[in-house]
Structures are given as structure tokens and as C-alpha cells.
Design a protein that fits this description.
Shape of chain A: globular
Largest sheet of chain B: 6 strands, mixed
CATH topology of chain A: Immunoglobulin-like
Mean pLDDT of chain B: 93
Number of strands of chain B: 12
CATH superfamily of chain A: Immunoglobulins
Mean pLDDT of chain A: 94
Low-confidence stretches of chain B: none
Oligomer: heterodimer
CATH architecture of chain A: Sandwich
CATH topology of chain B: Immunoglobulin-like
Order of helices and strands of chain B: EEEEEEEEEEEE
Shape of chain B: globular
Largest interface: A-B, 24 and 22 residues
Largest sheet of chain A: 7 strands, mixed
Number of helices of chain B: 0
CATH superfamily of chain B: Immunoglobulins
Number of strands of chain A: 11
Distance between the termini of chain B: 41 Å
Helix content of chain B: under 10%
Strand content of chain A: over 45%
Strand content of chain B: over 45%
Number of domains of chain A: 1
Order of helices and strands of chain A: EEEEEEEEEEE
Number of helices of chain A: 0
CATH class of chain B: Mainly Beta
Distance between the termini of chain A: 37 Å
Radius of gyration of chain A: 14 Å
Structural class of chain B: mainly beta
Chain lengths: 116, 114
């Protein structure tokens, strides 16, 4: 049963520190998404990759966030420097684009980040 | 651009009662529609989806949804809920024409009371 994996599952850090979150998408999927979930804002799209190319990062604070896919088995989301307002659950999802549509997204278990 | 509206932020029901969670969307082109469920401290997982064909779609855990093109709705229903159905439910839409990024609703919290 193929799954999206994310590491770490939990992270507590101090303001100003660098945070790196990793995601292993399902083998064969050609799209990867990074989302942030908070009580106040709900589910927000941060970044979108298709065939490893970054296509949309308009939802990401560019001065401190960066997202990359160094290879097909790894996607990373970095925050440098981190701030308390970055505390949230970060989800990675992967899926397939077929024709004109994005099909089902498969979500990882999330990284729960707390910035003190 | 497409949009999704989940009309209820919270739906409390008693166990074994029927439930309907409402979802309306807007799009100028054809769409794929999804319902995802998120249990506490977990990621979202697919409940059911409409791609084409029959407008009544059956999913996991006894849920079903009906695609209504004229009313641009995709409401989720279950005839008899269990305590274990307590979760957050998200409606999502992907539009054709090359817009590959799904749009999610704000979510509906289903709270099942004994």
C-alpha cells in the first residue's frame, strides 16, 4: 500500500532557527503539493510541483520559505529563519495529472511544527 | 478560476441519524469533484470522487455524494452515522482546461454525539 511519507512528524524549534521538512511522494506520481494547515486560515497551498518543476509558489512567503524537489523521491520545504507565526501542520501530497485534470491527491501524515 | 463553498462549518448529529454535508462550487469549465476526510492528527484521505458518468457516487464508510450540474453542488450524505465518523470533511474541485491545482473548501466539522 503506497503512501506519502513525511519527516519529521513533530518539530519544536526556537525562533530564528532553520527548519527543513521532507516528503517522499508515491512512486510514479507526477505532482507534489505542500500545504499548511492552521485553525485560523484552514488549508493553504504553499507550493506545487509537476514533473519536479516548481509551477506555483504564490502562497509561500518567499523571504523565508523555499521548496525544492532535488529528485523524484524527495521534496523539501525549508523555513529560514523560522518565526512563531509559522507554527502549523505542514502537509505534503502527491498525485497524478491525467490529461487536463489533477486526479486524487494522496496526503502524508503531516509535520507538526511549533516555533517558540 | 474555480471556487468551493462548504456552507456549514460545523454539523452536530446524534449517532445513527442521517447527515448531509453541503458543497457548492463554481467553475466555467468541466470539473472533477472530491470529498476528503481528515481524522484527528492525520492527513486528508479520499472519501469519494466524481470524474464522469453516474452522478451518484459511492465512497468508503457508507458515504455517498450526488453531482448536480445545474445546481453546481456535490453534497455528501450518509444514512446513519457512527461515532467514528467524527472528523473534518473537505470538498475539493479540480477544473479542466489546464488548471491543475485543486481548490479546497474551508471544511465541515462533523460531530457525532452518542
Amino acid at each position: 500500500d503506497a503512501r506519502v511519507t513525511q519527516t519529521p512528524r513533530h518539530k519544536v524549534t526556537e525562533m530564528g532557527q532553520e527548519v527543513t521538512m521532507r516528503c517522499q511522494p508515491i512512486l510514479g506520481h507526477n505532482t507534489v503539493f505542500w500545504y499548511r494547515q492552521t485553525m485560523m486560515q484552514g488549508l493553504e497551498l504553499l507550493a506545487y510541483f509537476r514533473n519536479r518543476a516548481p509551477l506555483d509558489d504564490s502562497g509561500m512567503p518567499k523571504d523565508r520559505f523555499s521548496a525544492e524537489m532535488p529528485d523524484a523521491t524527495l521534496a523539501t520545504l525549508k523555513i529560514q529563519p523560522s518565526e512563531p507565526r509559522d507554527s502549523a501542520v505542514y502537509f505534503c501530497a502527491s498525485g497524478l495529472v491525467r490529461g487536463q485534470f489533477q486526479e486524487t491527491q494522496y496526503f502524508g501524515p503531516g509535520t507538526r511544527l511549533l516555533v517558540l | 478560476a474555480q471556487s468551493v463553498t462548504q456552507l456549514d462549518s460545523q454539523v452536530p448529529v446524534f449517532e445513527e441519524a442521517p447527515v448531509e454535508l453541503r458543497c457548492n462550487y463554481s467553475s466555467s469549465v468541466s470539473v472533477y469533484l472530491f470529498w476528503y476526510v481528515q481524522y484527528p492528527n492525520q492527513g486528508l484521505q479520499l472519501l469519494l470522487k466524481y470524474l464522469s458518468g453516474s452522478t451518484l457516487v459511492k465512497g468508503i464508510n457508507g458515504f455517498e455524494a450526488e453531482f448536480n450540474k445545474s445546481q453546481t453542488s456535490f453534497h455528501l450524505r450518509k444514512p446513519s452515522v457512527h461515532i467514528s465518523d467524527t472528523a473534518e470533511y473537505f470538498c475539493a474541485v479540480t477544473a479542466g482546461g489546464g488548471s491543475y491545482i485543486p481548490t479546497f473548501g474551508r471544511g465541515t466539522s462533523l460531530i457525532v454525539h452518542p
